[in-house]
User: Fold these one by one.
Assistant:
Number 1:
Amino acid sequence: MMELLERVESSYIPAFKTMLMDVEAALTEAQDVRLHLMPLKCRLEDIERVEFSEVKPFLLPLLHVVCLIWVTSKHYNMPVRIVVLLQEICNLLIEQALVYLSPEDLLKGDMEESLGKVRMVLGILNTFKEAFEERREKLHTYYEPGQEVREWDFNSTMVFVRLDTFLKRLEMVEDLLATALDLMKLEKIEFSGIKGKTLGQQVLDMYEEFQEAYKLFSERTYDCLDLTNMAEDSALWAVESPQDQRVPPRERANISAMGQHRNVLRLHEDFATLRWLKDFEQDAFGFQQKVEDIDRRLGTVFIQAFDDASDLEHAFKLLDMFGSLLERPVIAADAADKYSVLISMFSRALDHARLIYSRHIQTELKLGSPPVHKNMPPVAGALCWARELRARIQVPFDQFRRIPHLYQEKLYADWSQTVSEKSQYNLTQPLIRRDPETKLVTVNFDPQLVLVLREVSYLSGSRLGAIPPPAAEIYSSKESYRQLAANLELMVNRYNKVLKTVLEVEYPLIQEQLRLNLGMGKGELSDVPMVLMLLAESRGCSCTVDCWGVWDHISMVMDDVHDLEQRIQKAKNNVEEIQTIVGSWASPIFVRRDCRTESLLSLEDCQDRLEQRYSLVRESGQRIHLLVKENQSLLLADPASDIWKAYVDYVDEIVLDGFFTAIECSLKYLLENTDPKAGLAPLFEVQLDLVIPDLIFQPSLDPGTKDGFYDMVEGLLNDIYRISSLVPRLAEHSGFLHYQVRGCGAPSCWWQ
């Protein structure tokens, strides 16, 4: 056809080429889909072939094939198609379950058999959901090394929306059957005692009311498991044909893209069946209300019968007669207070047995031989009496030992049901948490996880039942959690130490390092859930993609935080050393001779002292510059950045304060020792010589005279101020070479 069109140079050639390419692409896609879906056909036929109670072994291989389809198929590895495929598998399981259960007779046949079937179906369907989640977590194992992993990132509710609805309906039917099975025992309950007949009649009336309420289900013609009209806004439609106009267009497109293996559900021709569904729910609700009323009345009857029990034996018979009815919440709440009364009755029975024994011993001492039954020899009779007394205690004790299970098993069952959910929730929490106000971090090892570890430790040796797998799995890695918590606690302490001790001028220099070290963004340590630690431990890996490199990542973060903490601490130590250095300058340069208060200022060794001080300041300045340069390296700072210049200004201010203190100390010494009010000995000496005809002071007291007294004092002051010019300025950006700036016209000094 293409050649013919080209020969006649038809204008339809471009359109025909496009159509031809589309057909070829569709053919390739169809071949690929058929190739990969064919293995699934065998698995589905296996499920259809066996009875539903034998389906469980086929579920995991079925999902295994689905995973292979996702990984290997080029055209079927799209979420929309795999979701529809899984939905259809769920529909198939629902259909097989319906065939197995025979919903029309489920509430009409034998209750115990029906309840067993419902629980069997619930177990299989929940196993399928668990197998799905397991395959979902291990989907990466289907890929070759180096191959890009594409996870099932769609929400599981899209797959199980109809199955979950079916499970809820099954649970409703299970509760209804279990309740009916419990209340069937009312027919066999009989009471003794004064009130026995009255109480028995009350229970018989309750039984008849129950029979009347339950009889309603057997008279109805609806299907109690019918889900085709579960709700008007149901998101799932399965029909005889994808072209059914009653199906929304979007759903028809999904069904057509899927290519159904078989029709699992059929849309009812009569949409009025929705009325029957509502009738069932209304009937179930009305039955539940009736049962709650019966439970309340039964609780009252139990209390009256218990109070009427004459002794421990009758009380235990009453408990045995009620049996599982005592586990019903309303009745259990009423009966809970009676267990303490039962203990008191047993205690009185023990006291009575002890009294019998004491009297028997006293009689034996009086008669010289133990009293025995008639026609029995002494030894055999004594042993028989001992056995009877022991039985008097042992029989009620054995019955009493059966009582705690009503509380223990319930407590253990409640814990088993909640521990998995709580553990998994806490394991998915971040490893660390940050306080939004203080910015400090804490290790997020939830106390509930610690409680789970302690509970499992104590319950492992008990006989109450198997430890739930999630709790057992957590407990098996308790040593890993202990090490993890200890290492994280050490890391957090170091990190918080940095935050608590960092100065305002230092924080901008390390702000980015703090963010990179601890992980402020997606995928960093603050986002790593604790459950991954368990995965890493169970897989025995540390830096592979399989466990997301959790262990290596944590080790790297811990090393980085430790390195940051050490660098910050070293930088602080350097600043403290600078403060110590400038503090060593704070002593007078010029002092009295031999440091004696009555001596004059030692002018002979002034030059030596001055050179020593200058040498100390120069060496100190070199050391200070080296320390600042080292801090630049420790803080990974850019010397041209404004935040580093601000930090240098901070250290520069410390040096400036050191010079101010040093100069102030020397000047203060001169002022205090020349203050006439202080009453101290003179600091300077001036001689008055008689040179006829004049009187001359040595040195001269005239201002402006060279080598005069004023010149000498001014020289001393200049020598003191000059120490601030011996150290190059740290803050080079200030424009000054050192810390001394001379003013105009006078030997003074200002600090910038």
Number 2:
Amino acid sequence: MEQPSTSALQTSAPAASSSSPSLEDIMKLLRGKTDSQRLAGLLLVTKFCDKDDQLTILNVYRALGSTFLHRLLLTGTGKGSGGGGDDANREAYLRLSVTVLAAFSRVSQIAATDEMLSKIPLILEVMSKESGSSLSEECYEFIFLVTNAHEDGVITLFESGGMNVLASQMPILPDGSHAMELAMKLVQLTVSKLPAEKVFVGYPSELSKMVSAIAKQFALLHNALKFEALHLLSTILSSSHSGVLHAALLSMGDDWSTRIRIGVIDVLQNRVVPAEKLHALVLAECVISFVGEEWLIGPATLPGAQSSMPDVRCILLVLESSRVEIAVMLNELAYLKYEASKNSPINSEAFLGKLRNVGVAFSLVERIIKLIAKFSENEESNSTFNICDSTSTKMIRGLNETIGVVLDYLQDAKDHGEKKGNDLLASVRIAGSYLAEAPDACNEKVKELLGYMLSVEGENESSPFHSISFLLPMLCQITMEDDGCKLFASTGAFGAVVGFLISLIDTSSARIDNCSSSTVFLACDTVLNFLLKREQLRFSLENSWSVKLLRALIRWTEDTMEPSVIMMASSICSLILDSTSERDLLRHPDFCADDVSALSQLMKRSLVSCGQDSMHDDTNSEADLYQIVTSGYSSWADRFPRIKEIVER
């Protein structure tokens, strides 16, 4: 294009300014035959036209046409036919073309054109070369407005290297600037409108840099942009495709997670609307899923900042906010189920929304329970994480209150005859998690509800299974004590756990190739604990349960050489056999001579092969089980002649 000198660019507008040119005069220049006329017209547009007057801007766009502006932009980037002239001219052309393009893009009708879309690659190139310049804001404005307005805007941005530009630019953009705000909006458009595989799998490193930059805004700002950062971080980190991003973030160190912790603390400790606090809890759960529960305890300020806030500030706020959320949501769920439903059907969308919200709070409380359990285990090992007594007391009090509310919700469901629902199952799960660590908590409520909790079913369950699994750690704990065994017997927990164990053994996942499954052994330990105290409690074993359990244990061990499996199964069998006789067992329609033979082989293996190993090593984990088997055998052997014959053969 024709290249007027820098002095011509500087003097053309002032010459016209003395007479304040009319819009008609400017339009004539824009339609002029020479580049100099059009350039002068553009300069006058930038000086005299209101940037918010969209009709005038649209008329300017139509008068100027697309060819001249494109050539002006190419010249400004040094790609024009004349090379762009000296640096001063080139800079002036670039600044003018970007300013005009930004103005054009503010008119949605213009921004949605293919002509504007075609400029995205060039503007991205300008952004990458002019990093930190005063042009950045107008470049970001143009990119965002065109990307948002044109149906192919997001894919064009992506395919033109937008991810790379954003990743390199966002860490150095001024905090809280308009350019940063627009950059965040571009990230939001990208992750929401493109297939997750393209973004998360294709650009994990770039996305991790964006997350860190956004997290900084979340930590530092105290305006609406803080909450935009909160929502965007939640969207990114909660994606089901964030696995690759997970690895990229972990390789960056912990600055990003510290920034998010600071932002979460800021939201939870200040007066903000409940929806934003819930978003902060969602984000906290996402981060914990990446880095672990220990994230809840750590610095509450950015490096170098002065603060008196303790490292436990985050965990206390998350626990208290989750407690409040659980109390509110469970109350609203109960109202929807038992009161509102009297007049109209339950609003399933509202119900599911509240269920998702309470699920987030439940998950966080479970994380805190798990963390407290870790501290308890590490008390004697000089763990790097320490919680003072006063903080521990606050946390236990908060957990007790929370579980009390959950148990009240279950009591309400019991009173209404409800025992099926994912809300009830989730409530049993969180109660079980806490009671496993504090079996004596909420003692009276647990006594009242234990039998009911064991009967709770999920929406897709035909019989209780998961509820028993969730309560199993607590049941194993209480059966170590006489009072716990009494509760275990009086609530029907023994039958529930035996049925659960049989079901677990009979599923493919629990067969011998997975004989070390912790859940199977936990159920066995629970049954074993109870059977060892059975006579003291004067609890009579039902023959049907005895038969079912004996046959299941035989199936569990028939193809294994694993000593732990053989000894666990044979010790339970030995305790069962001590309460009956061979003749009584054979009278049962489901127990036959083949079962006696299989049981005989199991007892022989435990007493001979595994037993010899146990006797030679007093520290062996099977030694105590061997003592149970041998003691039982001496008591009941004469009542089982076939077993005695095979064992002593």
Number 3:
Amino acid sequence: MSLPLLPGYSFSRNAGKKRFHKSQHWGFCNNVSMLVSESKPGIGGELIPGQKKEPKCSVFPKGMGSDAPSWVAFDKQVLSFDAYVEDEVPDKVQENYRIRRYKILFYLEDDTIQVNEPEVKNSGLLQGTIIRRHRISLPPPDENEFYTVNHFNINTDVVFYGRTFKIYDCDAFTKNFLKKMGVKLSPPGQCPDDPYLKIWRKNLDYKMRVYPRESSYPLKRFLEYDRKVLRFFCLWDDSNSLFGDRRELVLNYFLSDDTIEIKELVPHNSGRDGMPFFLRRKKLPKYGPPGVYQPGEVTDKLVLNIYSNPSASQLHGYLLDSLKLGKLEQEFYKDSDLSLGTTINVWGRKVLLCDCDEFTKTYYKNKYGIENFTSISCKAPPLPKIERKFPPYTGFGSEEDSLLSCIGLWPKPYPHLKDVKKFLENDSYGNESNILRFLAKLITNQYADMDRLFIISYFLSDDTISVFEPTEKNPVSGIRMFFKRMHVKKPGQRDFKCELSEYFKAQDLYIGAQVTVNGYMFLLFSADEYTLKLMEKNSDKFPLSNIELILEKLREKTSKSGDIKQIFRAADPGVTKKMDYNAFRKKVLPRKDIRRLCKSSRLPLTDDLLGSLLSIFEDSEEQINYESFFCALNWRIHPMHKLVEMSALKEKYDDVSVKMPSLIPFKYIDYLTFLKDLCGTEEQ
């Protein structure tokens, strides 16, 4: 039994309630006051008794599966409906309305709608996406609600922004989805035909039946072969004509309309203007150049007659010659006429097809079954190399300047004379002078010049040679210039010749070499320590300074290593393991050989005096040091009234005092190291 409705016996229904507003049920529609909506709630947003709240989004029946949100469960699922709209066409006699087809797309994930109209070519209408994807509200008076999946069915009308879309069909997925939701589908309908299209097709059929046209399909060929081009690399050999040469061309054959264009590959610095086209794009006749035709004689279509409506002054149509009785026939090049090795006629010019690209090869292989694509070289055969001959040297200036005056008008230094890189690498810096200094003497028959000594300097930076002579008459430096620094030619060359002369190189200078400088022949018999070390360090450039090669020659001359050891042991009685440099390089000959040399030289001495003189220089083994003997006979050094034997250990010149290489650059020789390198054993 319920409690009576008396004060104190009932609970307040508004306890805890905060919203007491009333919904607006009345409003204006088209400036007329009317009931706007009957589905609005009561006071505070509570539903009126007997009222049901309509959902704002689509509600799907619950089935077996996960409770995933709609944007996950219905992702990429779209309902597609076919609809049409009847658009009124005012002020036009041919049609009163027009039928326009549309495709309505309903996205299940968020209840958005998109309307597309299929594009029709040459329709003159704005087609494509008519309504972009978004939620569309219902027409008034329910504009506060949106379209859901329950509003769509076959043979129903939907209104989007004042335009009525009549749905007449949908796709298979949409039908299956609506059936699973329990929606009863109406039978599909048909879209009515557009009256204007009926009239247009009727007129077109009438014209095609009454006025026949030629059976050509240029549009079909254009759509099939558009942007497909056969490319050939060609050659036009015009070398037989005056001032003609070989020209490389590129031929492009357009499959869409059988036209040909030719471009010329102009090489750099060829002296020709780079024209854009050798032949503009057009059909190329096989037997050109043809005769001169009158304007309108060569046409694709032949007009027989024109006709018009008697009641109208404008032209209505024309009749074409379908049999082509008066058409001028011309043969043009087709793709079947082009192949590698074929010569085509380009308006009187013979052009040879030499090669093609990969697309062209694939096209001919698929269409004509051609497998052989042997290319032909477009390059001209190399011309015979003609050796350039220069006139001989005239004697004026240097040979290099005379040669460069024949090569060009602008005077330039000869390349090998001004090698900057070589100069920077071999120029003197720090303790490296890069100068080879040799001590030399003249090879002459003049008795007064036999004892003259010279310093020959070779500069590695520019391959020049200078010669100085040490003298006691110069109190400043002790030397005087004999030959100015310059390049020195090798002897035995003609003075007036076409080619350049050869000059002395660093490899031509070594101890024992004979060098001819300005007509004087010098014998190099010594060098300073820097020169010897530099030549030994760069033994690849100076092969005569290769120690391994020297030891190999000594091994060939010496078969018994014991004899050499005994000689060194006898020369070193104190067992210091070192011997004097002069004693190491001392040169001796038997007594009879020295006597024969003196007799052959007609020495003005009697036999007794010569024998006494030889006995002075004879050792215990009857060997005579011929260097000391002939030095004693030098009357300039040893006058007759002062017969004094010169010691071989005394140095006449010092490189410190006179700035020249010493006659004896070493004091002692470590013969144990020498024996180890020569024989492979070490003296104990």
